[in-house]
Structures are given as structure tokens and as C-alpha cells.
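Changelog excerpt

This revision adds worked examples to the README so contributors can see how folded entries look when concatenated. The first example is reproduced verbatim below.
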Amino acid sequence: MHELTDNEKLELQKKLLLLGAKDFTSDFFNTEEYKELRHDMMDHLDTYDDERIRFKLLPMSTVLKAGKYVIDKHTRGINIKVAYTNLDFLRSDIIARYSEKPKRYEYDEMIRFIEDNVQQIDITDVPIMYEGSDKHNGFAAYTYFFGTDNIDLAFYKKLGAFLSKIKLEGSCNENTQLTYVHELYHGLIGRNKGAVNNLLHDEALPIFMEKVAASDLDSSERLLNLRTLDRLLNTKNNIMIKTKNDFFNNDRLGTITNEGYIISTLLATALFDVYEHGTSQTQRKIDDAINKVLVGDSQLEDVFDKYEATEEKGSILVRKQLKQYSK
């Protein structure tokens, strides 16, 4: 396997420190089940531009209301405030005070200064940047203040999660609602370092919640079916990129990113199967278990363990979905 370059090692270590994760590997990629999954992916869903994926257009106000509805329904009274900052303003204050290359002994003081000058706001009040384009995407933008060229990695170990915006791209439609929920949960789980123990699991809760949101917002299952197909196509793309990188023995950091989406999708699918087929009491218990993670009293992996959500179970379900959506 291709070794990480020095720059890749630095970037990976930064990601681990910011998340508070301890691991970035999975034995699942060495299993027969993964080989079956990869084989089935290659044999199904022939084009990424699947004509069945057609979402209804919506005003942004509806998207924002949908996100707030899902958050309010599932967090049920827990603290949903996140640290928000206008990146450029606060960064200019810090540089003026500590310079563009601050000294290591100043890190603790800098962190206190940052924490004293950020706002605590509800996750649903984080500003939205919307850009209409052909590509559907979304991300929660965090403020890191300094790049690795100007600061030691020890700074990132101390630095908390400070949101500056949530960006949504593409046509504003039903799918944008689910992407928004996805990013809202990134913002919530990112508040506590160590809430996710393995970097490859970082997308699992947001992917799980996009499925839950689809069920909440459309009882007919049409929206869930469309999002499931969309996620299958993305997972096939992730597997294809990983396979190509492994074959050419390059871009190890890119491979880790794609492995994260693969593993997270499988775990989210396995957990959602329990949720979808569970009683209302079971669904509430899953919400409660997730909320313990969001407030820093548990790790996400504890939820997977409790509900026996594994990569293998998720893979078996995904392979069934592949056959279902390829008919």
C-alpha cells in the first residue's frame, strides 16, 4: 500500500487532532464481504447521472424550516448551541495580537482569547451560504485560524470546533433539505473532541440522519428511496476511487477520505435498518443514545455497538439495495 507523504501525514494528524479521533483504519476492507460489495457495485448502477433522481424544487425558506423541524424533533431539549465566529474578523484580531506565526507558549492564551470572542448560537442559526450550481454539495465550514505552515500541531489538539457557516450548493430542492440536516449534525457532533473515535466514522451520524430526515419529511418513502439511490451512487464512486488509488498505489490520503464515506455509509445503513423497523420506543432510544454523544457523554461507536450496527450488516443491506434499485 502506498505510504503517506510527509504532507499527507501532517494533514491526517491535523484531522485526527481536530476531531479527537484515535484511529483511521478498518479491517473491513480485507474481508470477503467487502470483496462482494465491491464486485456488486461494479455490476450495478451503470451511470452516475441516473434519470430516476429528480427532486422537487423548493424555496430556501422551506429547506431551513425542514432542518429546524428535524433538529427539534430528535434532539428533544438538549443544548444545541455551537461556537460560531466570523472567521476573517476574529482571525485578524488574533494575528494582530499574536502575529502570523505565534509562539507555542502562546497557544493556551490564544485559545482562551478565541473562546472569549466567539458566539454561542443554536446550530440552526449558523449562517447559510447558498450557491446555485450544477453540482449538489454541502459542508460545515470550521475556523482553524492557522495553517500547518504557521503553527505546530499542538495548537489543533487544543483548538475546539468553531463554525463560520454552512454552505449548500446545487439546485435548491428536496435533497437540499437532507444535505442541510447532514451538515447540522456535523456541527453538533463536532462540538466534543473524541465523540468519534475513528476518523472513518466521521460521516456516519450525518448520513444516518439524512435517512431519518427523509422519513420525517415524506411518509410516502419516495424521498427516502431517492436519497438511498443517490447515496448508493456516491458509495459506488467512493469504491471506484479507492480501487483506482489502490491499483495505482497513490493518493493515500484521498483513499482514506473515500474509505471514510464507505465505512460511514455502511454503519449508517445498518443503524437505520434498526431504526426504520423499530417501534417508536426503539426510535426514541436511538435518539437518546445519539443525544448522549452530542452532549459529550458518550462516543458514536457506543451507539453502533449497542444496536449491533456493523460494516458487515450494512454491506449486506447495501448489496440488497443495489439489486432492488437496479431492476
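The second example, added in the same revision:
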Amino acid sequence: MDPTPLRRARLCLRGLRRRYLPKSEAAFSQVDVLVFSPGGVGTTLLIQELGRYVRVNRPHDRDGLKHLPTPRNLPARVKVVFVTGAFDSVCQSLERRGFLPGQLAKLGSPLGPLLPKARARAALRALVKRQKQAWSRLPPSQILFVDYDEL
């Protein structure tokens, strides 16, 4: 599914916001455990399951916390579960469902939604790498990395 020009423009604006305007600390007020990922690795299922026991972010990203590019303004009290997976599987899952342009924006790429497919894949690879590096700076007591295959 190829986004319309208006949808692409909206996605570009989302990418700008995600890259330069981090979530406020208040955005995390209803969350004890943040479960997030680059996308395409079963995060929704894990959020729904953990939500039975603890306060987690919204499974369908209504709160904008499911695919954060960086941990800016994350309170120290919030525990984090970062779900990862093999890049090719992530990319294929996003492409198959028509989510790749939107995911590029959610990961902070203002121009990602405008890229042709091959360049979009390369951009996604760089964004996923940058996301993991940014979140790896959290103390090990605050973050747990879980591979999709381990779920």
C-alpha cells in the first residue's frame, strides 16, 4: 500500500516531531513498564500480555510510546523492555503490512516516508541501529533486551 501524497506529508511532519520534540516526562506518568521496539517483532502481543499485570504503554501506539527513537525524558522509575529481532524479518513484516513509511517517521526520519523502497530499507537499518545504541545507554537495571525469537 503506497501512501497518498497527503499521507506522506503527514508522515514527514511526524518524523520531524519524533526526531526533534521528545515526549515530555508527563507522557510516561501512566506507565510503569515501557515495552517498545523498532516494529515488526510482536510488541503488541507482549504489551497486551504484560498489561494484565503492570501499567504499560498502549498496544496500538495511541500514546506514541511504542516506537520511541530515544529515551529522552524517560523517568528513572520506568522499567523498559526493548523487543528486537533480525533486521530482515523486521523489514519484511513492516513492508508486508504497508507500515514501512510510517515506521520510518515513528523512528524519527522526516524524509523517510518519501524514499523509494530500497533507500527506505537502508534508512530503516540505520534508524534501528541508532535506536538500539541510544537505548543501550540506559543502566542495565532499567532495561531488558528481548529478541523476538525468545518470545
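Reviewer comment on example two: Helices lie at 5-20, 43-50, 87-96, 100-106, 117-135. The chain has a mean pLDDT of 94.
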